Amino acid sequence: MSDFLGRLSSVPSRPHDPDNISAERYDRQLRDLISYLKQPGVASSTSDYSDFFEIVSPSVHSLSFLFLLRFQIQLVQKRTKRDIPQNLHPGGDLWKQVVRFLRSFDPIQIRYAGYEWRQLVEVVASAAQAISKPALAVKVIADALGRLNTSGMFTSVHLTLVKLALLSSSYTHTLPIMDKVLCNFPTDTNHVHHETFLCSEHGSSAAFITDTSGFSTKLTYRDHLQFYLYSAMIYMALKRWDHASHCLSVVISSPTANSVSKIMVEAYKKWVLASLLGYGKLPPTSRMIAPHVTRVYQSLARPYVSLAEAFEKADLQKMSAEVDLGQSIWRDDKNTGLVSQLFEAYDKFMIIKLGRTFSALTIADVLQRAPSYFKDHYDTEEFVASLVMSDTLRATLSHLPGTESTTMLRFCLSTQFHAFREEHIRTRLMRGKSALNTIAKGIVQTDQTLELSDENLHFIARSQKWNGDPEKSGAVGSGEAGVGGDIDEDLMGDGH
Amino acid sequence: MALAPLDPAEMGPSSPYVSQTAISMGVDPDTLNGTMNATAGPFVRVDDPPKFELESYIANYTGRTRFNRMFLIGTCSTHLAVEALKAAVAEAKSGKDVSRYERAVQALSEIAPNEAEAVIDRDWAERSQKVVKAETDRLEHELRGYKNNLIKESIRMGNEDLGQHYHQIGDLPSAFKAYSRMRDFCTTPSHIVSMLFKIISVSIERGDWLSVQSHVQRLRGQQPKQEEQTKNQPKMAAAMSLSQLHSGSYLEAANSFLATNPSLGDSYNEVLSPNDVAVYGGLCALASMDRNELQRRVLDNNSFRNFLELEPHIRRAISFFCNSKFRPCLEILEAYQADYLLDIHLQRHIQTLYTRIRTKSIQQYLIPFSRVSLDSMAKIFVLGTTDQTIQTDSNSAFVQELIGLIQDGTLDARIDLEKRVLVSSQGDKRLEVQEAALDSLDNYVREAHLRLLRANIVRAGLEVRPLHDERRLKIEERGGKRSTLGNFLSRASGMKQQEKLRSFE
Amino acid sequence: MDPPPLSLNQLSALLEAAPSPDDLYTSLSDYEEQACLLASQPDEVELLVDFYTAFFFSHLLTDQIHEARALTRRIPRDLLQTDSLQTCTLLLRAIWQRKHTEIYKILRELPWPERSRPVVQSYESYFQKKTLKEVSNSYEAIRPAAAASYLGLNANLAEQGDTAIIQKFTACGWRWDGETQLLHPKPIVTAPPKEHNLQNELSRVMALISNHGR
After folding, report:
1. How many independent structural domains does chain C possess?
2. Residues B230 and B354 placed together within one structural domain of the fold
């Protein structure tokens, strides 16, 4: 017993290690610990481990704690013959320990037990769903994922998280995870990092999240497509249209091999709506979408396309007709809510557009020139005022003297907001810069692994029917990737 | 009827033009050859009296264009209808084209049935038809004889005679064909030149402007002697400019008109007069050139001055425009609108030309200002009224016109309906650039992310694949019905599937 | 590390401490898990209603209106039928539709549980302040009645030119024009929150490419 405890607490997490041992030794110690914990005899099926939970610290001896949890869960499962026993349900004592662990584990130690860590996360997800309270798992998983810090690496846990968030309508907790730029997928990169150890400092997570590390299940294309579709749906619920439409762009421009996924078609439909709601028009689609894929979208999402046409042509009558006509389609596609927001967005963009023709006009003029569902003056003024007050419309309002209540809408020259704007521009620049940094890092990383693994390239070249589009400029990306020369050119180019 | 009914297929070269006329308003020359009335668009009705006098106007022209012009005036102008149609009847009766006679009489009988000329002269018509028929037969017969004898020069002349005959009787497609057949039998350059001019003349009457252009090009390809060249240039340039005018290339048309040598004189009166060159050229230039160009290339153009002297008001309009006196310029044009609407070549284009000139005036007027009051603009651009106070109401035609110009991007300005001014958008430029730069940064980041993801998706072998897709779909469908995970060690798949995910309302 | 168990006393203590909106939101959102687990117990209805009401207001105080809407979806259905949470839903709808008069009416006239009073009141003043800023920046001239209804003051009195109300506005730096009977708001300019990692070089470049100092 005490021997067991001794082994459990033999390898503290590095900040708690007084000796400051070398990475190599630490690596060996951790590997030893793992193989000890994985011995068949260690977990004798009779004893109860709950006492250890108070003795072993989840943050200092994370690996040991993780395995204790496993032992205990297996034990209880066996005893109760249930997948999710009572005390693993949210609020149960075992659940509390799991949550405690996921909130405080040491991300370095956990690198040696990715598979076990992920299973624990999935248990949390299942347990919360077992009592139909998925919300309980969202924050825990988001925190755990944040702790692990996958730095740009996509895992199946990401997908689990957004699914739960959508099911439980708790969105904000996922934002710290979703707002991070993801650009990598676990691949076989073990031999690249043969010189370093799992516990070493790594520039990228590709060193410890690989296809064999267990942090993610074996991914299929559906996983990342669903992740971005669900992320987009969360952003849409929060009305962050630009993020939503970017996520949807990822889905609809995903590389394909002679087939289009249904998820992509659904994403295209939502992309049409999100673009109209966010920008008032359909921006050009990414040039990376193959023509035959575009044709599939156009034909399968026809009602959406004609709806967008009516919207863009400012043909309110046709738009209403399209909306009525497609009621059952919107309902079947679960897009009724988005469609119903189109009218307000239409009015909003009509009024914003007025600012390009007029620099000042009365509300009566607005009413006359932006035909919509406004009933009267008062209605219009209220709507315009809400746009101005929420900063959607850069303009000011003025009540004019006199008994008849005339209101003047003045679209300001943006210079009047000068002080504001400097800050605003700076913030946007900084945001762009940090996103760009992440991506540049991702590119360098991709570049390195690509150069080092030729078979990868051969595989890619074989698996993609290369129809090297000569007019494709590949301008983005190839610049930063630099070293790879024509290899990058091709990769970053239009390899559909 | 003497004329063989035309096979529509024979209209080959002019068919694109036919479709063009169907949508354009007004009469075009092709409808005047008696075979295509059905395709003519709605007629233009001109109620204002023109400034010209019919007799002196028509004296400028010779040949078939006289009838065509009179007929157009007769059918469009309420003022000159009777006079012009009577003259047209007389003109037709002096020739051999029976069908145009019949049409002129028909048109006259509709508006003035009591006139003596409004009753068809059966005697004359039958007699003429017989004469024409005999003449056709004779010429065809002669030509066959020449062909048998294989004498090139005779065949050429035989075709020429036949072509001329067909042209005179108004059978333009046959005339075109006969003239075209001359080509193989021309032995000297001057034969070729004369043949090409004949073809051009028929093509102009048919309104086949593509053919006019290609044959003028062919003329240019000939290299006759110097004096020939100088003699032919004005007519070539005039024919070319007409075709460019009709195809809507007003700047090219202006350039060609400006390049027409004043030695043209009355030499091309069967097509157009030097006055026409001044008017057509002047209007095309006004519609397509800026103030500097107009000054330099039109007013200071010594050779074109000869033409402009014939139509001093055009010269005045252009110099007003150059001096930024837009109202008098527009007033002159307004005053002559009726004249131009009764012109066989201008009728279909005058509206477009006027709109362009007007738009350009507004643009030029605004250049020096950052803000202009709508009232002062109305004083210049609202013609035909003296009471300007009501003209800048936000629903007035003038303000609507400005709104249209702003919305289609012609004017870079915005309207302030409060202070009743037009504000130039210049002040926003710097911010627009900043905004655009930031947007492009965002787009760049997004695009880079998409591309990087794409590369890594491909690297990880995660492209969308057909077979795999179906298999997985089935697994997931089944998985969706199973409630919770089977075993702790298996993948937790109790996730409810996509269909459970609610949409947002 | 885990917060003390959720109870009426704990909740009262938390609310009485009047923490900053952000802190309030964070501590309440830590309790959501517990609340969620309590939901099945019938004797905890009072606690849950009070908790969710407070949690709802902490969303409003931190301008998370969309998440507040999501919260109303997460709250168990039977709880949502209680008066207090029904009023929250009404309030949410009024805020969503930007019906100022209605918002004030709900906040002031509808019954709120005793324990929630402080958050309700602090939201009222928060909302008033926020609206004042929005109106100040949006209107160059405004009729007193309109301004009053935006800020939840008596619009009828304002229309009659009640000096007390006018004075409230002039106290904010607004100018009263007695001749035109219009108020002229004074814009409230606040810079957006500065980011810590702002680099000097960037600021300098920005200063160069923009003619800020002209």
Report:
1. 2
2. yes
What pLDDT, in 10s, does the model give residues B351-404? Answer: 999 999 999 999 999 988 888 988 888 888 887 665 545 556 777 888 888 999
> Between residues 94 and 133 of chain A, which touch chain C (CB distance below 8 Å)?
100, 103-104, 133
- C135 contact residues in A (CB cutoff 8 A): 389
Residues 6+ positions from B238 with CB-CB distance below 8 Å? B257, B260, B264, B268, B271, B272, B277
Cβ atoms < 10 Å from Cβ of A282: 17
Say which residue the tokens 């195809």 belong to: B247
Structure token digits, residue A64: 């040991």
C20: distance to nearest CA of chain A, Å?
A: 19
Tokens representing residue A397 in the block: 């309002």
Task: Provide the shortest C-alpha distance from residue B490 to chain C (in Å).
Answer: 27
Q: Domain spans of chain A?
A: 2-219, 223-340, 345-411, 417-492
- Neighbouring subunits of B (3+ Cβ pairs under 8 A): A, C
C129, C147: one domain? no
Nearest residue of A to residue C132, measured between CA atoms: A389
Distance from CA of A262 to the nearest CA of B (A): 9
pLDDT per residue as tens digits for the range C59-76:
999 999 999 999 998 888
Searching chain C, which residue's CA lies closest to the CA of residue A91? Answer: C37
In chain B, which among 431-470 make CB contacts under 8 A with chain C? 434
ipTM, two decimals: 0.85
Which residue type does A130 have? A
Are B344 and B429 in a shared domain? no
Taking CA–CA distances from B465, the nearest residue in chain A reads A257
**Nearest Cβ partner of C134 from A169, A389, A423?**
A389
Instruction: Enumerate residues 6+ apart whose C-beta is below 8 A from C88.
Output: C52, C53, C56, C72
Using an 8 Å CB-CB cutoff, list chain C residues near B434. 209-210
Smallest Cβ–Cβ distance between A399 and the set C67, C141, C197 belongs to: C141
Angstroms from B429 CA to nearest CA on chain C:
12
DSSP A211: T
Tell me the C-alpha to C-alpha distance, in Å, between residue B318 and each of B117, B332, B333, B378: 43, 10, 10, 21
C42 plus C77 within the same structural domain: yes
Q: Model pTM?
A: 0.76
Q: Do B344 and B386 reside in the same domain of the chain?
A: no
Strand intervals (E) in C135-185: 139-141, 175-177, 182-184
Task: Tell me the residue range of the domain where C132 lies.
Answer: 8-136
Residues 417-446 on A with a CB inside 8 Å of B are 421, 425, 428-429, 432, 435-436, 439, 442-443, 446
Which whole-number Å values give the CA distances from C185 to A390, B303, C136, C142, in the listed order? 17, 67, 5, 8
Helices (H), A280-411: 291-300, 302-312, 316-325, 327-332, 336-340, 342-357, 363-369, 377-389
Q: For residue A77, give how far its alpha carbon lies from the nearest alpha carbon of chain B (Å).
A: 8
Domain A345-411 carries which CATH code? 1.10.10
B152 band by pLDDT with thresholds 50, 70 and 90:
confident
pLDDT, tens digit (0-9, with 9 covering 90-100), for A265-288: 999 999 999 999 999 999 888 888
Tokens representing A354? 């007025």
- A129: exposed, middle or buried (Cβ count in 10 Å: 0-12, 13-18, 19+): buried
- Asked whether residue B303 is assigned to any structural domain, the reply reads yes
How far from A88 is each of A58, A94, A99, A239, CA to CA, in Å?
A: 17, 5, 10, 36
> Which of A123, A248, A259 is best to mutate for the B interface (most B CBs within 10 A)?
A259
* C-beta atoms of A171 and C212 within 8 A: no
Q: Cα–Cα distance between C213 and C201 in angstroms, integer?
A: 18
